[in-house]
Design brief:
The protein is built from 10 helices and 17 strands. With 392 residues, it is α+β, with helices and mostly antiparallel strands. Bound molecules: flavin mononucleotide.
């Protein structure tokens, strides 16, 4: 079975729920592992007041016994602490009160509000924005934490770091060891270039003072992948498209690239690819990684590098012009408590999305109902790879 998941839950509803299928039996899982990533998603300079209210903690409600997965669906719940402030507006039962007495009628440019009410036939944008809110990404980070646990069994680790916020861009190319990359968590903007990180913090403060918001770019890095994950056999199996799609499914992500991505368009072929070398101890290897670890829709055994661009947050304290859907009057867009910049948090969501996709391709290739079955298949594959190396 392949890995699949569903999430449910409104931003100010009682809780977020996810169900994950396809995690093999025997994987060690604890709420602590998941909470660590949930906390990382909540950090970052530029977040709004909501993150002060929430301290996300997962409740594992099924699929795990005595710290090990059972091979059955894993259920995860994250209670919304803010729900207590929204019990009337977001009431599940009608209870004779009109929860929609104060509808949101002015859509925000750049948000799901206007297309959403048209699609579903609502007159209150809250019915759309509650689910379109990136609060949902807390669920994805929780699912991603399970995927990472699975990947870690096969020495795969996924990291992220921020390379741009507004006009402030990182100039230093970071080291690519687990130790180098994990240092991103120590930066208030998850940037590995300290000078640029200071500039980013200043940019965010300036944006806040001006009632503005900011976007940026983050990079996701996966270490320890074997070659041959994904496939060139058919379009939907190509891993580049799957990772690009996974990153672009994150709210506000407007572009994704693998390796040197868009820069490759400007280079001649001799400067665009990674020459192939061989070492009897190491196997095949490259001295450059312009392909970002993917060739032909498959991992090539090098470090996986994917980058995503996030647009500025659409909710502004100095709102853009919009139209009241009842009166037709031109008025400033709806204001909702909001982040000024969420690129550092989006990077953590990006890690989760890439981890889920990598866990999927690992399960497709090595499968198995239990972790032990999967390990047998994985080890056999690695032995086959080594046995196929040139023996001059
Ligand atoms: C981690 C994260 C936090 C976000 N926080 C906010 C926010 O506080 N306010 C807001 O208007 N949009 C926020 N967004 C962006 C919106 O969710 C997104 O722009 C909106 O759902 C519309 O989708 P689109 O930008 O993909 O068109 C956030 C996105 C992410 C990934």
């Amino acid at each position: 079975m392949s890995l699949s998941y569903k999430t449910a839950g409104e931003s100010h509803g009682p809780e977020l729920v996810s169900i994950i299928e396809g995690i093999p039996a025997g994987l060690s899982v604890s709420a602590r592992d998941i909470d660590r990533d949930l906390a990382r998603r909540q950090l970052g300079h530029g977040r709004g007041g909501r993150m002060k209210i929430e301290k996300d903690q997962v409740i594992i409600s099924s699929g795990v016994r005595n710290g090990l997965t059972l091979g059955s669906p894993v259920g995860l719940r994250i209670v919304n602490a803010d729900w207590r402030n929204w019990t009337e507006v977001m009431a599940v039962e009608a209870d004779g009160k009109d929860a929609t007495a104060e509808p949101v009628t002015v859509p925000r440019p750049g948000h799901a509000d206007l297309p959403g009410i048209q699609k579903f036939g609502f007159r209150d944008m809250r019915n759309v924005l509650e689910r379109a809110s990136a609060r949902e990404t807390a669920s994805r980070v929780a699912v991603g934490a399970l995927a990472r646990k699975l990947l870690a069994e096969f020495t795969v680790q996924v990291f992220s770091h921020v390379v741009r916020i507004g006009e402030a861009g990182a100039a230093v190319t970071p080291g690519m060891t687990a130790e180098d990359l994990s240092a991103a968590d120590e930066s208030p903007v998850r940037c590995l270039d300290r000078g640029a990180a200071d500039d980013m913090v200043r940019e965010i403060d300036r944006a806040r003072e001006n009632g503005e918001s900011l976007g940026g770019v983050f990079e996701v890095v996966a270490l320890g992948l074997v070659p041959g994950l994904g496939s060139s056999a058919s379009g939907p199996e190509r891993l580049g498209g799957r990772i690009g799609g996974a990153l672009m499914s994150i709210p506000a992500i407007k572009g994704a690239e693998i390796g040197d991505g868009f820069q490759l368009a400007r280079r001649p072929g001799s400067q665009a690819h990674d020459e192939i070398f061989f070492d009897p101890d190491r196997g095949y290897y490259r001295r450059t990684n312009r392909a970002g670890g993917l060739e032909g829709g498959m991992t090539n055994g090098e470090i996986l590098l994917a980058r995503a661009c996030m647009k500025p947050i659409p909710t502004l304290t100095r709102p853009l012009r919009s139209i009241d859907i009842n009166s037709g009057a031109g008025v400033p867009a709806h204001k909702e408590r909001s982040d000024v910049c969420a690129v550092p948090a989006a990077a953590v969501v990006g890690e989760a999305m890439v981890a889920i996709e990598l866990a999927r391709v690992m399960l497709e290739k090595f499968g198995g109902d239990s972790l032990d079955d999967m390990r047998v298949s994985f080890n056999a594959y690695r032995e086959r790879l080594e046995a196929s190396w040139p023996r001059p």
